[in-house]
TrEMBL record:
Gene3D superfamilies: Hect, E3 ligase catalytic domain (3.30.2410.10), Hect, E3 ligase catalytic domains (3.90.1750.10). Keywords: Transferase, Ubl conjugation pathway. The lineage of its organism: Eukaryota, Viridiplantae, Streptophyta, Embryophyta, Tracheophyta. This is HECT-type E3 ubiquitin transferase. Its EC number is 2.3.2.26. It comes from the Eukaryota. Probable E3 ubiquitin-protein ligase which mediates ubiquitination and subsequent proteasomal degradation of target proteins. InterPro entries: E3A/B/C-like, HECT_dom, Hect_E3_ubiquitin_ligase.
Length: 418
Protein backbone atom coordinates (compact mmCIF):
# COMPACT_ATOMS: atom_id res chain seq x y z
CA UNK A 1 0.00 0.00 0.00
CA UNK A 2 2.88 2.35 0.83
CA UNK A 3 4.38 1.61 -2.56
CA UNK A 4 1.07 2.46 -4.24
CA UNK A 5 0.81 5.68 -2.22
CA UNK A 6 4.36 6.68 -3.12
CA UNK A 7 3.63 5.89 -6.75
CA UNK A 8 0.45 7.99 -6.60
CA UNK A 9 2.27 10.94 -5.00
CA UNK A 10 5.03 10.70 -7.59
CA UNK A 11 2.43 10.71 -10.39
CA UNK A 12 0.65 13.72 -8.90
CA UNK A 13 3.96 15.54 -8.53
CA UNK A 14 4.98 14.65 -12.06
CA UNK A 15 1.60 15.83 -13.38
CA UNK A 16 1.96 19.14 -11.49
CA UNK A 17 5.44 19.62 -12.94
CA UNK A 18 4.20 18.97 -16.45
CA UNK A 19 1.33 21.45 -15.97
CA UNK A 20 3.76 24.06 -14.60
CA UNK A 21 6.15 23.58 -17.53
CA UNK A 22 3.23 23.89 -19.95
CA UNK A 23 2.05 27.07 -18.23
CA UNK A 24 5.55 28.58 -18.29
CA UNK A 25 5.84 27.69 -21.96
CA UNK A 26 2.58 29.53 -22.68
CA UNK A 27 3.77 32.59 -20.72
CA UNK A 28 7.10 32.63 -22.57
CA UNK A 29 5.37 32.25 -25.93
CA UNK A 30 3.03 35.16 -25.11
CA UNK A 31 5.92 37.31 -23.86
CA UNK A 32 8.04 36.53 -26.92
CA UNK A 33 5.24 37.09 -29.40
CA UNK A 34 4.25 40.33 -27.68
CA UNK A 35 7.88 41.46 -27.65
CA UNK A 36 8.13 40.65 -31.36
CA UNK A 37 5.01 42.67 -32.12
CA UNK A 38 6.16 45.60 -29.97
CA UNK A 39 9.55 45.52 -31.74
CA UNK A 40 7.94 45.38 -35.19
CA UNK A 41 5.55 48.21 -34.35
CA UNK A 42 8.40 50.31 -32.93
CA UNK A 43 10.51 49.78 -36.07
CA UNK A 44 7.53 50.62 -38.25
CA UNK A 45 6.78 53.78 -36.26
CA UNK A 46 10.42 54.89 -36.44
CA UNK A 47 10.55 54.22 -40.17
CA UNK A 48 7.35 56.19 -40.73
CA UNK A 49 8.44 59.09 -38.52
CA UNK A 50 11.74 59.39 -40.37
CA UNK A 51 9.98 59.48 -43.73
CA UNK A 52 7.24 61.89 -42.65
CA UNK A 53 8.17 65.44 -43.63
CA UNK A 54 5.12 67.06 -42.04
CA UNK A 55 2.84 66.19 -39.18
CA UNK A 56 -0.88 65.92 -39.75
CA UNK A 57 -2.65 68.62 -37.70
CA UNK A 58 -6.37 68.79 -37.10
CA UNK A 59 -8.76 71.07 -35.25
CA UNK A 60 -11.56 69.14 -33.54
CA UNK A 61 -14.63 70.64 -31.91
CA UNK A 62 -15.32 68.96 -28.58
CA UNK A 63 -19.05 69.34 -29.19
CA UNK A 64 -18.75 67.39 -32.46
CA UNK A 65 -15.79 65.19 -31.63
CA UNK A 66 -16.72 62.09 -33.61
CA UNK A 67 -18.13 63.89 -36.64
CA UNK A 68 -15.12 66.22 -37.00
CA UNK A 69 -12.66 63.37 -36.56
CA UNK A 70 -14.47 61.25 -39.14
CA UNK A 71 -14.62 64.10 -41.67
CA UNK A 72 -10.89 64.81 -41.38
CA UNK A 73 -9.05 61.65 -40.36
CA UNK A 74 -10.97 59.23 -42.59
CA UNK A 75 -9.38 60.97 -45.62
CA UNK A 76 -5.85 60.11 -44.50
CA UNK A 77 -3.77 57.64 -46.47
CA UNK A 78 -2.25 54.56 -44.84
CA UNK A 79 1.14 56.29 -44.65
CA UNK A 80 -0.37 59.40 -43.06
CA UNK A 81 -2.24 57.29 -40.50
CA UNK A 82 1.04 55.74 -39.41
CA UNK A 83 2.71 59.11 -39.06
CA UNK A 84 2.39 61.62 -36.19
CA UNK A 85 -1.08 63.12 -35.82
CA UNK A 86 -1.53 66.28 -33.78
CA UNK A 87 -4.88 67.52 -32.54
CA UNK A 88 -6.07 70.82 -31.10
CA UNK A 89 -9.49 71.09 -29.50
CA UNK A 90 -12.01 73.86 -30.14
CA UNK A 91 -14.15 74.66 -27.10
CA UNK A 92 -17.85 75.59 -26.93
CA UNK A 93 -16.98 79.25 -27.55
CA UNK A 94 -15.25 78.44 -30.82
CA UNK A 95 -11.82 79.12 -29.33
CA UNK A 96 -8.80 76.88 -29.67
CA UNK A 97 -7.82 75.37 -26.33
CA UNK A 98 -4.37 76.24 -25.03
CA UNK A 99 -1.83 73.44 -25.16
CA UNK A 100 0.97 72.01 -27.26
CA UNK A 101 0.32 68.45 -28.34
CA UNK A 102 3.45 66.53 -27.48
CA UNK A 103 1.40 63.34 -27.49
CA UNK A 104 -0.73 63.93 -24.40
CA UNK A 105 -3.53 65.76 -26.21
CA UNK A 106 -3.63 63.06 -28.89
CA UNK A 107 -3.95 60.42 -26.15
CA UNK A 108 -6.80 62.44 -24.63
CA UNK A 109 -8.38 62.64 -28.09
CA UNK A 110 -8.09 58.86 -28.57
CA UNK A 111 -9.63 58.14 -25.16
CA UNK A 112 -12.56 60.48 -25.77
CA UNK A 113 -13.30 59.48 -29.35
CA UNK A 114 -13.20 55.73 -28.65
CA UNK A 115 -15.48 56.27 -25.65
CA UNK A 116 -17.95 58.18 -27.83
CA UNK A 117 -17.78 56.04 -30.97
CA UNK A 118 -18.09 52.66 -29.24
CA UNK A 119 -20.81 53.83 -26.85
CA UNK A 120 -23.90 51.69 -27.47
CA UNK A 121 -26.02 54.85 -27.41
CA UNK A 122 -24.36 55.97 -30.64
CA UNK A 123 -25.77 52.93 -32.42
CA UNK A 124 -22.75 51.40 -34.15
CA UNK A 125 -22.07 48.81 -31.45
CA UNK A 126 -24.17 46.73 -29.10
CA UNK A 127 -23.38 44.93 -25.84
CA UNK A 128 -23.79 41.29 -24.88
CA UNK A 129 -25.29 40.35 -21.51
CA UNK A 130 -21.72 40.44 -20.18
CA UNK A 131 -21.26 44.03 -21.46
CA UNK A 132 -18.90 43.03 -24.27
CA UNK A 133 -18.98 45.02 -27.51
CA UNK A 134 -19.86 43.77 -30.99
CA UNK A 135 -21.14 45.48 -34.18
CA UNK A 136 -24.81 46.41 -34.18
CA UNK A 137 -26.49 44.34 -36.94
CA UNK A 138 -28.99 47.19 -37.35
CA UNK A 139 -26.40 49.97 -37.58
CA UNK A 140 -27.66 50.88 -41.08
CA UNK A 141 -31.01 51.91 -39.58
CA UNK A 142 -29.21 54.42 -37.34
CA UNK A 143 -26.47 55.84 -39.57
CA UNK A 144 -26.59 56.23 -43.32
CA UNK A 145 -22.77 56.10 -43.56
CA UNK A 146 -22.45 53.26 -41.04
CA UNK A 147 -20.03 51.17 -43.12
CA UNK A 148 -17.70 54.13 -43.66
CA UNK A 149 -17.81 54.71 -39.91
CA UNK A 150 -16.90 51.07 -39.22
CA UNK A 151 -13.88 51.45 -41.52
CA UNK A 152 -12.94 54.61 -39.62
CA UNK A 153 -13.35 52.93 -36.21
CA UNK A 154 -11.19 50.02 -37.37
CA UNK A 155 -8.42 52.44 -38.28
CA UNK A 156 -8.86 54.20 -34.90
CA UNK A 157 -8.40 50.95 -33.00
CA UNK A 158 -5.43 50.12 -35.21
CA UNK A 159 -3.91 53.54 -34.51
CA UNK A 160 -4.32 53.04 -30.76
CA UNK A 161 -2.52 49.68 -30.91
CA UNK A 162 0.08 51.08 -33.32
CA UNK A 163 0.92 53.90 -30.90
CA UNK A 164 0.70 51.71 -27.78
CA UNK A 165 -2.31 53.60 -26.38
CA UNK A 166 -4.50 51.40 -24.19
CA UNK A 167 -8.25 51.90 -24.64
CA UNK A 168 -10.95 50.53 -22.36
CA UNK A 169 -12.93 48.64 -24.99
CA UNK A 170 -13.98 45.13 -23.92
CA UNK A 171 -14.89 43.28 -27.13
CA UNK A 172 -16.88 40.07 -27.46
CA UNK A 173 -14.68 37.10 -28.36
CA UNK A 174 -16.65 36.26 -31.49
CA UNK A 175 -16.00 39.77 -32.82
CA UNK A 176 -12.28 39.62 -32.01
CA UNK A 177 -12.23 36.45 -34.13
CA UNK A 178 -13.12 38.66 -37.08
CA UNK A 179 -9.82 40.54 -36.64
CA UNK A 180 -8.16 37.19 -37.31
CA UNK A 181 -10.57 36.57 -40.22
CA UNK A 182 -11.90 33.48 -38.47
CA UNK A 183 -15.31 31.87 -38.82
CA UNK A 184 -17.50 31.53 -35.70
CA UNK A 185 -19.33 28.32 -34.85
CA UNK A 186 -22.14 27.12 -32.58
CA UNK A 187 -19.82 26.86 -29.55
CA UNK A 188 -19.19 30.63 -29.84
CA UNK A 189 -22.91 31.47 -29.56
CA UNK A 190 -23.14 31.58 -25.72
CA UNK A 191 -20.98 34.73 -25.69
CA UNK A 192 -23.63 36.49 -27.81
CA UNK A 193 -26.97 34.91 -26.93
CA UNK A 194 -26.89 32.24 -24.19
CA UNK A 195 -30.67 31.84 -24.28
CA UNK A 196 -30.70 31.09 -28.02
CA UNK A 197 -27.83 28.66 -27.48
CA UNK A 198 -29.85 26.77 -24.84
CA UNK A 199 -32.85 26.61 -27.18
CA UNK A 200 -30.73 25.20 -29.98
CA UNK A 201 -29.24 22.57 -27.67
CA UNK A 202 -32.77 21.67 -26.60
CA UNK A 203 -33.64 21.05 -30.25
CA UNK A 204 -30.47 19.02 -30.77
CA UNK A 205 -31.38 16.63 -27.94
CA UNK A 206 -35.16 16.66 -28.46
CA UNK A 207 -36.52 13.10 -28.41
CA UNK A 208 -39.93 13.80 -29.95
CA UNK A 209 -41.06 14.65 -33.48
CA UNK A 210 -39.44 18.03 -34.16
CA UNK A 211 -41.75 18.70 -37.13
CA UNK A 212 -44.61 19.08 -34.63
CA UNK A 213 -42.89 22.21 -33.25
CA UNK A 214 -43.80 24.03 -36.48
CA UNK A 215 -40.33 25.50 -37.04
CA UNK A 216 -39.12 26.64 -40.47
CA UNK A 217 -35.76 27.65 -41.93
CA UNK A 218 -36.26 31.31 -41.13
CA UNK A 219 -35.03 33.63 -38.40
CA UNK A 220 -36.80 36.74 -37.09
CA UNK A 221 -34.69 39.87 -36.67
CA UNK A 222 -35.89 42.59 -34.33
CA UNK A 223 -34.02 45.87 -34.66
CA UNK A 224 -35.40 49.08 -33.16
CA UNK A 225 -38.94 47.72 -33.10
CA UNK A 226 -38.85 46.58 -36.72
CA UNK A 227 -39.34 42.86 -37.22
CA UNK A 228 -38.32 41.15 -40.40
CA UNK A 229 -38.06 37.51 -41.36
CA UNK A 230 -34.99 36.20 -43.16
CA UNK A 231 -34.66 32.83 -44.85
CA UNK A 232 -31.72 30.69 -43.73
CA UNK A 233 -31.88 28.85 -47.05
CA UNK A 234 -33.59 29.69 -50.36
CA UNK A 235 -37.23 28.72 -49.89
CA UNK A 236 -36.72 28.46 -46.12
CA UNK A 237 -40.19 29.86 -45.39
CA UNK A 238 -41.66 26.66 -46.75
CA UNK A 239 -39.01 24.27 -45.39
CA UNK A 240 -40.04 22.67 -42.10
CA UNK A 241 -37.44 21.67 -39.50
CA UNK A 242 -37.46 17.89 -38.96
CA UNK A 243 -35.42 15.34 -37.06
CA UNK A 244 -33.44 14.73 -40.24
CA UNK A 245 -32.42 18.37 -40.88
CA UNK A 246 -32.42 19.86 -37.36
CA UNK A 247 -28.59 19.83 -37.11
CA UNK A 248 -28.37 21.85 -40.34
CA UNK A 249 -30.97 24.28 -38.94
CA UNK A 250 -29.03 24.72 -35.69
CA UNK A 251 -25.76 25.53 -37.44
CA UNK A 252 -27.46 27.90 -39.90
CA UNK A 253 -29.03 29.85 -37.02
CA UNK A 254 -25.65 30.12 -35.24
CA UNK A 255 -23.96 31.17 -38.48
CA UNK A 256 -26.60 33.85 -39.11
CA UNK A 257 -26.18 35.41 -35.67
CA UNK A 258 -22.39 35.11 -35.36
CA UNK A 259 -21.22 35.69 -38.94
CA UNK A 260 -23.87 36.70 -41.47
CA UNK A 261 -25.59 39.51 -39.52
CA UNK A 262 -22.37 41.43 -38.90
CA UNK A 263 -20.46 40.45 -42.04
CA UNK A 264 -20.51 43.91 -43.70
CA UNK A 265 -19.70 45.81 -40.49
CA UNK A 266 -16.87 43.41 -39.61
CA UNK A 267 -15.41 43.50 -43.12
CA UNK A 268 -15.20 47.31 -43.19
CA UNK A 269 -13.87 47.45 -39.61
CA UNK A 270 -11.17 44.93 -40.53
CA UNK A 271 -10.12 46.90 -43.62
CA UNK A 272 -9.58 50.00 -41.50
CA UNK A 273 -7.78 48.03 -38.79
CA UNK A 274 -5.41 46.40 -41.28
CA UNK A 275 -4.29 49.79 -42.56
CA UNK A 276 -2.09 49.88 -39.46
CA UNK A 277 -2.00 46.33 -38.08
CA UNK A 278 -1.14 43.68 -40.72
CA UNK A 279 -2.73 40.25 -40.53
CA UNK A 280 0.55 38.41 -39.91
CA UNK A 281 1.08 40.49 -36.77
CA UNK A 282 -2.39 39.85 -35.34
CA UNK A 283 -2.16 36.15 -36.22
CA UNK A 284 0.52 35.76 -33.54
CA UNK A 285 -2.17 36.12 -30.88
CA UNK A 286 -5.39 34.43 -29.87
CA UNK A 287 -8.55 36.42 -29.10
CA UNK A 288 -7.81 36.72 -25.38
CA UNK A 289 -4.31 38.04 -26.07
CA UNK A 290 -5.64 40.54 -28.62
CA UNK A 291 -7.97 41.93 -25.96
CA UNK A 292 -5.00 42.29 -23.61
CA UNK A 293 -3.08 44.20 -26.31
CA UNK A 294 -6.06 46.52 -26.77
CA UNK A 295 -6.93 47.16 -23.12
CA UNK A 296 -4.00 45.97 -21.05
CA UNK A 297 -3.41 43.21 -18.53
CA UNK A 298 -6.31 41.48 -16.78
CA UNK A 299 -4.15 40.86 -13.73
CA UNK A 300 -4.56 42.79 -10.49
CA UNK A 301 -2.80 46.14 -10.32
CA UNK A 302 0.88 45.61 -9.52
CA UNK A 303 1.44 48.48 -7.08
CA UNK A 304 5.17 47.81 -6.69
CA UNK A 305 5.69 47.86 -10.46
CA UNK A 306 3.71 51.10 -10.78
CA UNK A 307 5.70 52.66 -7.92
CA UNK A 308 9.04 51.75 -9.49
CA UNK A 309 7.94 53.43 -12.74
CA UNK A 310 6.56 56.68 -11.27
CA UNK A 311 7.88 60.22 -11.66
CA UNK A 312 7.27 63.06 -9.19
CA UNK A 313 7.06 66.85 -9.53
CA UNK A 314 6.25 70.15 -7.77
CA UNK A 315 8.05 69.21 -4.55
CA UNK A 316 7.19 65.53 -4.27
CA UNK A 317 9.88 62.83 -4.40
CA UNK A 318 10.02 59.04 -3.79
CA UNK A 319 10.88 59.42 -0.08
CA UNK A 320 8.43 62.23 0.68
CA UNK A 321 6.29 61.46 3.74
CA UNK A 322 3.05 62.09 1.86
CA UNK A 323 4.17 59.88 -1.05
CA UNK A 324 4.90 57.02 1.36
CA UNK A 325 1.39 57.57 2.74
CA UNK A 326 -0.10 57.53 -0.77
CA UNK A 327 1.37 54.14 -1.68
CA UNK A 328 0.13 52.66 1.61
CA UNK A 329 -3.38 53.96 0.88
CA UNK A 330 -3.35 52.65 -2.69
CA UNK A 331 -2.23 49.18 -1.52
CA UNK A 332 -5.05 49.09 1.04
CA UNK A 333 -7.77 49.66 -1.57
CA UNK A 334 -9.84 46.79 -2.95
CA UNK A 335 -8.96 45.34 -6.33
CA UNK A 336 -11.97 47.09 -7.93
CA UNK A 337 -11.01 50.46 -6.46
CA UNK A 338 -7.41 50.01 -7.60
CA UNK A 339 -8.70 49.49 -11.15
CA UNK A 340 -10.88 52.60 -10.79
CA UNK A 341 -7.82 54.53 -9.63
CA UNK A 342 -5.84 53.41 -12.67
CA UNK A 343 -8.69 54.46 -14.96
CA UNK A 344 -8.88 57.79 -13.10
CA UNK A 345 -5.23 58.62 -13.80
CA UNK A 346 -4.58 56.91 -17.15
CA UNK A 347 -8.00 56.55 -18.80
CA UNK A 348 -7.75 52.73 -18.78
CA UNK A 349 -8.49 50.36 -15.89
CA UNK A 350 -5.75 47.93 -16.91
CA UNK A 351 -2.00 48.22 -16.93
CA UNK A 352 0.27 47.57 -19.95
CA UNK A 353 0.80 43.88 -20.75
CA UNK A 354 4.56 43.98 -20.14
CA UNK A 355 4.44 46.27 -17.10
CA UNK A 356 4.31 49.98 -16.31
CA UNK A 357 7.72 50.63 -17.86
CA UNK A 358 5.74 50.55 -21.14
CA UNK A 359 3.19 53.15 -19.97
CA UNK A 360 3.73 56.26 -22.08
CA UNK A 361 4.13 58.86 -20.65
CA UNK A 362 5.14 57.50 -17.26
CA UNK A 363 2.74 57.91 -14.34
CA UNK A 364 3.51 61.10 -12.43
CA UNK A 365 2.36 62.42 -9.04
CA UNK A 366 2.36 66.20 -8.80
CA UNK A 367 1.75 68.28 -5.69
CA UNK A 368 -1.52 70.17 -6.09
CA UNK A 369 -1.91 73.76 -4.96
CA UNK A 370 0.48 76.34 -3.60
CA UNK A 371 2.73 75.29 -0.67
CA UNK A 372 1.64 76.93 2.58
CA UNK A 373 -2.02 77.47 1.66
CA UNK A 374 -4.10 75.34 4.04
CA UNK A 375 -7.25 75.27 1.90
CA UNK A 376 -5.54 73.14 -0.74
CA UNK A 377 -5.30 70.26 1.75
CA UNK A 378 -9.10 69.92 1.70
CA UNK A 379 -9.44 69.64 -2.08
CA UNK A 380 -10.00 66.42 -3.95
CA UNK A 381 -7.22 64.91 -6.06
CA UNK A 382 -7.55 65.54 -9.80
CA UNK A 383 -6.03 63.92 -12.84
CA UNK A 384 -4.92 64.57 -16.40
CA UNK A 385 -5.28 61.23 -18.19
CA UNK A 386 -3.60 62.57 -21.33
CA UNK A 387 -0.39 62.86 -19.28
CA UNK A 388 -1.04 59.99 -16.83
CA UNK A 389 -0.83 62.63 -14.11
CA UNK A 390 -2.24 62.64 -10.57
CA UNK A 391 -2.48 66.03 -8.85
CA UNK A 392 -2.37 65.13 -5.17
CA UNK A 393 -3.00 67.73 -2.42
CA UNK A 394 -0.86 67.56 0.76
CA UNK A 395 -3.33 65.74 3.03
CA UNK A 396 -2.71 65.69 6.77
CA UNK A 397 -3.62 62.06 7.46
CA UNK A 398 -3.93 58.67 5.78
CA UNK A 399 -7.67 58.59 6.56
CA UNK A 400 -8.27 61.95 4.87
CA UNK A 401 -6.28 60.91 1.82
CA UNK A 402 -8.18 57.63 1.47
CA UNK A 403 -11.58 59.34 1.82
CA UNK A 404 -10.74 62.00 -0.77
CA UNK A 405 -9.17 59.52 -3.19
CA UNK A 406 -12.11 57.10 -3.02
CA UNK A 407 -14.57 59.94 -3.62
CA UNK A 408 -12.60 61.16 -6.63
CA UNK A 409 -12.15 57.79 -8.35
CA UNK A 410 -15.81 56.86 -7.85
CA UNK A 411 -17.20 60.18 -9.07
CA UNK A 412 -16.02 59.67 -12.70
CA UNK A 413 -14.88 63.28 -12.76
CA UNK A 414 -11.48 64.51 -13.79
CA UNK A 415 -9.63 67.73 -14.53
CA UNK A 416 -11.77 70.27 -12.67
CA UNK A 417 -13.03 68.18 -9.74
CA UNK A 418 -12.60 70.06 -6.50
Amino acid sequence: MLTNLQSLNFCELRYSQIRLIHLLKQCLELFFSTFCEQSQLTCSRQSTSHSALTRQRFKIRRSRLLEDAFDQLSLLSEEDLKGPIRVSFINEHGEEEVGIDGGGIFKDFMENITRAAFDVQYGLFKETADHLLYPNPGSGLVHELHLQYFHFLGSLLGKAMYEGILVDLPFATFFLSKLKQKYNFLNDLPSLDPELYRHLLFLKHYNGDISELELYFVIVNNEYGEQCEEELLPGGRHMRVTNDNVITFIHLVANHRLNYQIRAQSTHFLRGFQQLIPKDWIDMFNEHEIQVLISGSLESLDIDDLRSNTNYSAGYHPDHELIEMFWEVLKSLSSDNQKKFLKFVTGCSRGPLLGFQYLEPKFCIQRAGVPGLEEHADRLPTSATCMNLLKLPPYKSKEQMQTKLLYAINSEAGFDLS
